[in-house]
Specification:
The chain has 352 residues and is an alpha+beta fold. Helix content is 54%, strand content 7%. It has helices at residues 2-19, 23-33, 44-57, 61-73, 83-92, 96-109, 114-126, 130-146, 154-167, 174-186, 233-240, 242-248, 253-269, 282-292, 300-309, and strands at residues 206-208, 213-214, 220-228, 272-279, 314-315.
């Protein structure tokens, strides 16, 4: 019991040290936690990744690389491969050859990962290497259009690429014209999905916005608010309701959030327009159910819709450089943003 209490106490100390910018202390705490059987509420891969981001923001790029390597050693994964983050750290440190080599190897390993082209292109754009940004982003646009853009990323890739073209003094090219046409067709509400997996429309995950429905021409254009348990409420909910425990008891909260992100993207690819994520505070939700004589295991969707109507939901998606909707404090592009589009219970939306 003493060891467990030590682990929990140390986990709290890590969060405080990281928040206050005492990064060497935070790293020392994580190194100590590696030897603990109980790390409290912390998941070491994510902690090391957060520490890497903090070192990078401070310009300590070698420390960032070391921390990200520790994250990977402990199981940190996702799309793009987290080695792409290491390439970004090298690039910001001025080591362009090292960065280029890593990205080239990752492209060879997984040439169909559109998030890799996005990460490399955006990174080159941020450091002012617009020639390479145009190349990487262009390849990403071509890949996304070829695969019908299940991630909804063509417009984003195109926006950054156009900025780099402008920085180079170039006019928009044929690829950008094709991207415009593709995005217009992709956003057309009359466009029908090839298939519709009805099991994804589970009551505890999302609810149609009141008034949404069929658009002229027979297309499906539904606005959605999704019910979501924030950190702290997640474990409380799992302990309270067996139906949640069955699906989520063994899933860390960070992975739960990324699976929800993947579900949102999957629904969006099927023309279900997600507008927001509605946080559920268990005690408030239970009282709401009691007042309205609702079954808590059946009413999460209706509660989410009401939170949305009252303006108490979190708008989705955030900007790439904005804080992630999940409350981690990390940028969206470094947190849930890279999650792969997939039905929520498929479990394929890996951590980034």
């Amino acid at each position: 019991m003493a060891t467990a209490r030590c682990g929990i106490r140390t986990s709290v100390s890590f969060e405080i040290a990281l928040k206050q910018g005492r990064l060497e202390e935070a790293r020392s705490i994580l190194d100590d936690l590696e030897r603990e059987p109980d790390t409290g509420d912390l998941w070491l891969p994510e902690c090391y990744a957060d520490l890497a981001s903090a070192f990078d923001r401070r310009g300590q790029h070698d420390d960032a690389i070391a921390s990200m390597n520790s994250a990977i050693e402990h199981g940190w994964g996702g799309r793009p491969d987290p080695r792409s983050d290491i390439a970004e750290f090298h690039l910001r440190a001025g080591r362009r050859d090292e960065a280029a080599s890593i990205w080239a190897n990752l492209r060879t390993e997984d040439p169909e990962d559109v998030w890799l082209y996005n990460a490399a292109g955006l990174s080159y754009s941020e450091v002012g290497d617009h020639e390479l940004a145009v190349v990487w982003l262009g390849e990403g646009i071509e890949l996304a259009m070829r695969t019908q853009d299940p991630e909804g990323i063509v417009a984003q890739l195109s926006g950054v690429r156009r900025a780099s073209l402008a920085a180079l003094g170039r006019d928009l090219d044929e690829l950008e014209r094709q991207a415009d046409e593709f995005v217009a067709q992709w956003q057309d509400p009359r466009r029908q999905p090839d298939s519709w997996a009805e099991e994804s429309r589970t009551a505890d995950e999302w609810h149609a916005e009141p008034g949404a429905g069929e658009e002229p021409g027979g297309g499906r254009e539904v606005a959605v608010a999704m019910a979501w348990f924030p950190a702290g409420e997640y474990q409380t909910a799992i302990g309270r309701w067996d139906s949640l425990a069955e699906d989520w008891a063994e899933v860390p909260h960070a992975d739960y959030c990324r699976r929800m992100e993947g579900q949102i993207k999957w629904l969006r690819a099927h023309r279900i327009q997600i507008r927001a994520v509605s946080p559920i505070v268990v005690d408030e939700f239970v009282k709401w159910c009691e007042d309205l004589d609702e079954d808590p295991e059946e009413a999460r969707a209706r509660y989410a819709a009401e939170r949305y109507e009252l303006g108490e939901a979190i708008a989705w998606p955030p900007g790439r450089n904005d804080p992630c909707w999940c409350g981690s404090g990390r940028k969206y592009k470094k947190c849930c943003g890279p999650a792969q589009a997939a039905p929520m219970h498929a479990g394929t939306a890996s951590p980034s």
